[in-house]
Amino acid sequence: MTDARDSVSFLLGHAPREIRGADPTMTVLEWLRGKAGLCGTKEGCAEGDCGACTVVLAETVGAGLRYRAMNACILFLPALDGKQLITVEHLAERALHPVQQAMVTYHASQCGFCTPGFVMAMFAAAHTAPVVDRGAVDTLLAGNLCRCTGYRSIADATLDVCAAPVDDQFTEAEATTLAVLAALPKGPLALRHGGRRFWAPDSLATLAALVEAYPEAVILAGGTDVVLWVTKQFRELDAVIAIGGVAELRELTTDGGVLRIGAGVCYTDAMAVLAGLHPALGELVRRIGSVQVRNSGTIGGNIANGSPIGDMPPALMALGARLVLRRGVVTRELPIEDFFLAYRHTALAPGEFIERMDIPILLEGAVLAVNKVSKRPDQDISAVCGAFMVVIADGWVADIRIAYGGMAGVPARAPAAEQALLGRPWNEATIRGAMAAIEEDFSPLSDMRASAAYRATVARNLLLKLYLDHAA
Amino acid sequence: MSAVVGTSAVHDSAHLHVCGTARYLDDLPEPAGLLHAFIALSPHAHARISAMDLSAVATAPGVVAVMAAADVPGVNDVGPAMPGDPIFAPGLVEYHGQSIFAVAAGSIGAARRAAALAKIEYELLQPILTIDDAMAQQAFVLPSKTLRRGNPEAALAAAPHRLSGRLAMGGQEHFYLEGQAALAVPGEDGDIVVHGSTQHPTEVQHLTARALGLSDHAVVCQTRRMGGAFGGKESQASLVAVIAALLAQRTGRPVKLRLDRDDDMILTGKRHDFRVLYDVGFDGEGVVSAISFDFASRCGMSPDLSAAINDRAMFHADNAYFLEHALIVSHRCKTHTVSNTAFRGFGGPQGMVAIEHVMDAIARHLDLEPLLVRQRNFYGAAPRNVTPYGMRVEDNITSALVAKLAETADYATRRADVSAFNAAHLWRKRGIALTPVKFGISFTLTQMNQAGALVHVYTDGSVLLNHGGTEMGQGLNTKVAMIVADVFGLSLARVKITATTTEKVPNTSPTAASSGSDLNGRAAQVAAETIRDRLAGVASADFGVPAEQIRFMDGLVSGGGKSQSFVEIVRSAYRQRLSLSSTGFYRTPGLAYDAETMTGRPFFYFAYGAAVSEVEIDTLTGEYRLTRVDILHDCGRSLNPAIDIGQIEGGFVQGAGWLTTEELWWDERGRLRTHAPSTYKIPACGDVPADFRVALYHNENVEETVHRAKAVGEPPLMLAISVLHALRDAVASVGSGPVALDAPATPERVLMAIESRRSQVALAEAAE
Ligand SMILES: Cc1cc2nc3c(=O)[nH]c(=O)nc-3n(C[C@H](O)[C@H](O)[C@H](O)COP(=O)(O)OP(=O)(O)OC[C@H]3O[C@@H](n4cnc5c(N)ncnc54)[C@H](O)[C@@H]3O)c2cc1C
Ligand code: FES
Ligand code: FES
Q: For a Cys staple, B722 with which of B64, B154, B435, B658, CB 3.0–4.6 Å?
């Protein structure tokens, strides 16, 4: 990449900062607490699960600023480029920020260690959608753990202060902030730190060329899986190619009955469209990670990660989605079920990457059900995730697609169960047959999330539930 | 009355918490030359170290020091009550994740990378991992104990009805949001200052001195605040602090040791898991005449605090119920797993889960409303008011409190609604339960019920206060400051509490057993009253009225129609060369307990409460939701209602987590596989019902506690037993037979309990 910048530029609060020569796989949290000496942002887990490290990134979208809560512990430094980083230290000016004041008024801190993270999650919410009811609070705060308060006080504070958009020093300074952000250097990044290389191309063509030239490089989308390789497994990444700067991959369009989602679209941006496709998809996305995780994580990353317990693949299989893969200038299409070859092994060839997902819009009369079953309802990984698309015509099963996560080394269709249903009358006997057939399709494993027996029972019962819910 | 005590003053650090300016251990400014330490953990549960070569570690880039068992100058043990917890494994490894050696280097990354270069050979031994294994091999960390009253064998044989069974409950990870951390700074002449995140600075001081071969007076331990503790930083903070201190002594440089979340969860102890066998005799009304309990808990590799914890489990095997003839046996099992430790409730919750299970089993056996059976068994008037350990229940309010809660929570109507809902729905089922709590307040080790404080009044009238307790979020400092402000008639803003340090108040007890404000509040009150009496003497001379008539209120000192500001009186006292500083000391009165026979009065008083929980379950997947909770809880005369309600809500939710989604899972090699929040699920906001009603029960403590308040730290945790029972109730609405639902009642356990009660065939038939 010629003309690429070798430093990361952003606003820290209102002050422009440029970081050169730093390790691009250093997390924003390490940088804040170490180099920047800002210790207000806490580390509770370093894996994106507790929210103690929540910061807010503001960026220019259209004519305004968009504020999003992020987990600083699973964000590599270059993610700051071109954005405004707001931490808990920036909120109180002459007096406490309304969000902070609400937390005090409602006695919503005890040990206080989780508090900065909650404050920042609430701050982002106060600048975006109004939080209207407790359900919305639960969704908003699913990624912030508090071990002391029992949450009631925090929920009350949130309902109070996030009910309407706040006016604060950030809204006041918006015009200036937009101007300063606009003036920050733009264009692709090519960073070096010792032998480590990090690229952030800004076009599909350069991305494709880089991935082809460096097939060993790690592709980085939202990083909600990749960063954990570094913070938890202490892996050293020699070469990283970030896709976040590629506008073509952030496109989301509907075209001839097909929804096309670019590989760089984060869950938050896809959520409304998917919910529009079917409410069950909206609910599934709502239960993936937390606001913070969905603000960076992508569906493309979920698929490419190749995990047997990723939540999107079963639903996408039930919908009959296809993947568009690119290597250099060549693209190919693949039904999503053909992408998963074996445990953590996918059909991606060296130098190839996912460009987008094509999801056919659900046919009139088709039933879709998606059931994510986990120990804890919010922000948990599935024990089993079942997705079902069925078309019933005149009491007969005219079309059926069943897929499960958590039941095998890969997310997979259930051919025997499908066979037991297709072309049969939609009645209990048929469903019983399909439930029995699940045993031919899968022999699940036991682990810390669930026993094999539980997984098998749930997989069967989800079919029964599908039937009971749509027996009429 | 008081202008301060009894108000909902906000936590004294609230404004710092919300700004991120409250400093936790890892936020302290780093001293020059700081080294970072890393502990290398054992990869095996049970093994002998046959060879250890750390030379490559020592010569790795950035490494300044490496220490293992042989390098400890003093005693290589941090066992709190008795030895058994080596700082570094001395040759025998007894759990997966045990500390083997430690490295100090310029950065944590360098220390961690260096540690991986160790060459250690292990000779593997067969580990004992479960309670059942330990019972089969009769492996114990401490001798079994028996508490007996009456003639349980004969009474059981004579009982009209008799039930026996087995239940199990899991352990619990503390998951304080701030992990274990310490910073040790060497001073002159070999002295050392340890900044710890600990509930027990005195113990850290003493164990550090012992390990480093120093006298106690050469070591200072200081704690400003903890980011949560819950018992997990009582004995468990010592190891981290002592290793930091050892490396600081060795290198002559400051050393910080902070465990990352995974290491913290693997290396440090948790709540004990229990298995319980019971045999109960009762009449047709469900009234218990005799019970036999056999408790076995998994203590892990060492005794740690297991003696007192298991004793407390035995003391709470009655909960709120009169057990006329009782035999309570407790086995303290040794396993090759991390040594289990203090956790909010300290064994009490496990005892209560056992007896509540029995109450539920009796009700279901007799087909009676569980609440009715519970009520029939409550402690009552003499002779039904004596606990199995012989203590009279003097201030028993259980019946009245439960009756009031049943009414305000509309229990009877909702019970009918639940039945109606269950009749109308195929695979969604609801359940409801009310369970009581009676929790004994005091350390059962009587000598620990003492506290000290130090109060200074400065000549500008501001007050500085130190006490032996530690602030972990429970609002202790706020409460104690309120008590002192009240003594002087000052506003809260005039009283400041600084870090707890062994330099100011020596030989303290841990901040534990809910005793923090009872003990330290009283000690601080005594100290403040000493100074106030001196000031009253000054005012009495000035105003010409007896000292007893001098009042301290609203920043004024008045008597005989005259008044002066507090500051003026303080200055007069200074000019008269009176001391404006005092210590205060308190010991809990009236305790008389014989540890040999396990009888007497181990507790000063009891705290009471009750909760109603309602759940809805999905009988096809076992998933559930807690839909409503009503709590009525007794804090005596609350020192600070907002703080007390915070403790109740937080304790309840933490208890609900223990009994529902928090599952510790070890593999067949004894490795904990749920060592991070991705796999270990504490409650999130959405697990707490929007309909969560908490009220305080107005009830002055009959004992003379500070302002007649009651302790509130631990008791509310056990209110969550109602959640487990609501789930049992919902499960019981399906099929027939016993409700085989152990804790934690994960969706998996709920589903399996349902599956064992009926086949799903009937359900689908009903759908036709
Ligand atoms: C706290 C937390 C909660 C989570 N909860 C859930 C959950 O509920 N359900 C769930 O399914 N997952 C969950 N995850 C996992 C993770 O968030 C998802 O898998 C997410 O979709 C990954 O997307 P990403 O953009 O962050 O991927 P990254 O981490 O950037 O990448 C993941 C993998 O995909 C590869 N990759 C990314 N984009 C491409 C591309 N375009 N082409 C080729 N390869 C690519 C990367 O090289 C890497 O191997 C959670 C993670 C965290 C930290
Ligand atoms: S530290 Fe827990 S989410 Fe970042
Ligand atoms: S206040 Fe302690 S974790 Fe939330």
A: B435
